[in-house]
Amino acid sequence: MNLLIELVKFIILSLGIVALSKYLLVPVLRRISQLLELGPKASGNIAGFATSVPELLTVIFSAASGLISTSIYNILSSNVINLIQYIFSIYLNKNQKHLNNKAIKIDLLLVIITILIPIFLVVSNIGINTNLVIIFIILLAVFYYINYNSHRLYLEKEQQEILQEEIEEEKEEYRFKKKNKKTVILYWIYLIFITVGLYVVGELLSKSLTNLSNIFALPEIVLGTLLGVITSIPELLTFIEAQRKEKKKNSEEANKLGVIEATNNLLTSNILNLFAIQSIGIIIYTIFG
């Protein structure tokens, strides 16, 4: 078996998970939430969780293959790359001055903590067990509490404007959409096929990971870092798009809203990666690893 061929297969399968999640899963979930009239906030939450599916799947299959260190390096590299991509998008759109808001500063501090925690786990060689899951769940609640209250204190006005803007955008987008039960059922069928596709690709990725680790003795830090780079691609696209769509309005207030949206995207992604997805990986490793 050729190492180069296996590496190419690994990269293609990882990109396949990203593509299926980004271009099929997310749009279908958005349509379902709209057809069920869940509202803009619920719709946004569903789409936000959907963009974390690449990390979720790669962590699950890594942990199930007994490669728990790969999943940890995956989350660490994803969170680091997310922050780098966020900073790049801010400078690309020349929005640096909007980082001075207190709520955004607090969000970025929390983001840095989501990077320091996995670094600490790697450096200290702490045993990976279900006790970490309990700690992560508590930290997940604490982080969301801090994020919610800092935004309420320092970004109340902007948050209301974002919500109103989402409502108007979604009214416009779905004004001529006909909502009926057949359409909802059709999208659920789409969702089932997409889920099956993700599972099949994930199974193949799991076998590729096992081959690279066991046959070619490729270090887990290399595997995890590669996974982190690949699964962070959707975040880069959303960071840039969040700011560019506001920049078209030619106002500083709109630019600020773009930065707020990108920052929320960054923090939510990193929090989910570390506290939720890594916890799932630990549980699966404990049972099947």
Strand coverage percent: under 5%
Percent helix: over 70%
- Rounded to an integer, what's the Rg over CA atoms? 20 Å
Q: What best-fitting shape do the alpha-carbon axes yield? A: globular
Number of helices: 11
Count up the domains: 1
CA-CA gap between termini:
25 Å
Mean pLDDT value:
80
- How many strand segments? 0
Biggest sheet: strands, sense, closure? none
As residue ranges, the low-confidence spans are none
Structure description:
The protein is an all-alpha fold and 289 residues long. The chain has one domain. It has helices at 3-35, 40-50, 53-64, 68-92, 102-124, 130-154, 156-173, 181-215, 220-231, 233-247, 252-288. Helix 1 (3-35) packs parallel to helix 9 and helix 5 (102-124) packs antiparallel against helix 6. The longest helix has 37 residues, at 252-288. It is globular and about 55 Å long.
Quick description:
With 289 residues, the protein is mostly helical. It is 85% helix and 0% strand.
What keyword list fits this structure?
289 residues; mainly alpha; 85% helix; 11 helices
What layout of secondary structure does this protein have?
Blueprint: H1 3-35, H2 40-50, H3 53-64, H4 68-92, H5 102-124, H6 130-154, H7 156-173, H8 181-215, H9 220-231, H10 233-247, H11 252-288
Helix pairs in contact: 1-2, 1-3, 1-8, 1-9, 3-4, 3-8, 3-11, 4-5, 4-9, 4-10, 4-11, 5-6, 5-11, 6-11, 7-11, 10-11
